[in-house]
Amino acid sequence: MSTRVLFDLYGVFLTRGVEDSLLQITDVVNADAAQQFRQTYLELRPELEAGNISDERWWQQLAQRSGVHNGEISEIARALDSTFELNLQGLEMATTVIDAGYVTGIFANISPGMAQLARERFAWLEDFAAVIFSCDIGVCKPDPAAYEVAAESLGAPVKDTIYFGSNEVFVAAASNLGMQAFMYRSPQQVFDVLDGRNGH
């Protein structure tokens, strides 16, 4: 079976992405400060997720540029930790895909600190043939190089890799590169795509 299957971590196995969790920080700081923080966070995030800066130094820069106090930063970091809310349906789906014989991987833009937490908390990551984290490879989606590394990690050309993601920009970039890319909707959608691929 030559087809490889690649899933995003957020939106497939974890119910919320970082952007969703950023909406929760108004519990920590006022609305104006939260808006400035979110904007600064998203501007600075690629450098962190590419592994170009330590988490500690990055949070320091974020505090300086966003005007949020260090005490509030630690509270915000805890709020972002809520991104680790497991989607059991997604995990059960992936187990079925793996058991069917597909070489299957996880592909995520993620910071070094979050990547470490994920590996500590989720033993099931070891069930996948490859876990491609942006902070480990030095490049983030939607950079084409990230998709090429991911496909190579699974041992197949980009064109033989099916990607399910929850971010429209990332899915479009994968498609433009030649991957068979889909916005993830449900476990049944994955089964339907793979069954169609096999001509069942």
What does this structure look like?
The protein has about 200 residues and is of the alpha/beta class. It has 2 domains: about 120 residues, HAD superfamily/HAD-like (Rossmann fold); about 70 residues. About 50% of the residues lie in helices and about 10% in strands. It has 10 helices and 5 strands; from the N terminus they run βαααααβαβααβαβα. Strands 3-2-1-4-5 form a 5-stranded parallel sheet, sandwiched between helices. Helix 9 links the parallel strand 4 and strand 5. The model has no long low-confidence stretch (mean pLDDT about 90).
Main attributes of the structure:
12% strand, 200 residues, HAD-like_sf, single chain, 10 helices, alpha/beta, elongated, 2 domains, five-stranded parallel β-sheet, Rossmann fold
Number of helices: 10
Number of spatially distinct domains: 2
Q: Mean of the pLDDT scores? A: 88
For this structure, what is the CATH class of the largest domain? Alpha Beta
By CATH, the topology of the largest domain is Rossmann fold
What CATH architecture label of the largest domain applies? Answer: 3-Layer(aba) Sandwich
Q: Structural class, from secondary structure content?
A: alpha/beta
What is the helix fraction of residues, given as a range? Answer: 40-55%
Strand segment count: 5
Instruction: Tell me the name of the CATH homologous superfamily of the largest domain.
Output: HAD superfamily/HAD-like
The fraction of residues assigned to DSSP E strands is 5-15%
